[in-house]
Amino acid sequence: MSMRGRFVSLEGVDGAGKSTHVEFVADSLGARGHHVVVTREPGGTDLAEQLRTLILRHPMQPLPETLLLLAARADHVARVILPALEAGHWVACDRFSDATAAYQGAGKGVSLELIERLSAAVHPGLRPDRTLVFDCTYDVARQRLAASGKPLDRFEREDRAFFERVRGAYLVRAKAEPARVRVIDASREVAAVREAIETHLADL
């Protein structure tokens, strides 16, 4: 039987650039001889991708939004993440449960206790082995989103106050769990960000 693989999640505010680096994370781990499954949340399965479209495009209250996210995560964990880890593969996931605590919890006021209880039901005992939080200021994030030229989803259109609540939640979590959660200054040049990524993955 293969040894269980390791689980790496990438987190951060919209515009910080984490999605830009997920393939680099996979390549870096692959260069060390690991088979890496790259996936994202919400998404990763046919059902979860359909729920992603609903969540990103349709206005809704925070509680149903949270429930849809957890439904997508339940399918994703069962069909993609756990099978990969149990097969000995490594998983690099663009967002996971920390995002729900930051966005729906701190950002939108959903009870963190409720989020934790739902998360425990959806993926009992499963947490990322390493979480990379890509951090930058609101102004940097807005400039990057504008420069992308892509239509903004409803999270990317949120105001500065929402951004600061989400960013603050990530930084608080990093302070509380320094062994798992590592903060990367995403405002720096790509080469510097990638050097930091490799440093924070080196001890896995």
Structure description:
By secondary structure, this protein is α/β, with parallel strands linked by helices. It has one domain: P-loop containing nucleotide triphosphate hydrolases (Rossmann fold, 3-Layer(aba) Sandwich), CATH 3.40.50. Helix 2 packs antiparallel against helix 3, helix 3 runs parallel beside helix 5 and helix 4 packs antiparallel against helix 5. The longest helix has 25 residues. The two termini are about 20 Å apart.
Question: Topology, pairings included?
Answer:
Elements: E1 7-12, H1 18-30, E2 36-40, H2 46-57, H3 62-86, E3 90-94, H4 97-107, H5 112-122, E4 130-135, H6 138-148, H7 160-176, E5 181-185, H8 190-201
Descriptive labels:
204 residues; alpha/beta; Rossmann fold; five-stranded parallel β-sheet
CATH homology superfamily: P-loop containing nucleotide triphosphate hydrolases
Structural class: alpha/beta
**Biggest sheet: strand arrangement:** 2-3-1-4-5
The number of helical segments is: 8
Estimate percent helicity.
40-55%
Which spans have pLDDT < 50 for at least 5 consecutive residues? Answer: none
Name the CATH class: Alpha Beta
Outline type:
globular
- The portion of residues forming beta strands comes to 5-15%
Q: Quick check: average pLDDT?
A: 96
Named CATH architecture? 3-Layer(aba) Sandwich
* CATH fold naming: Rossmann fold
Q: How does the major sheet shape up? A: 5 strands, parallel
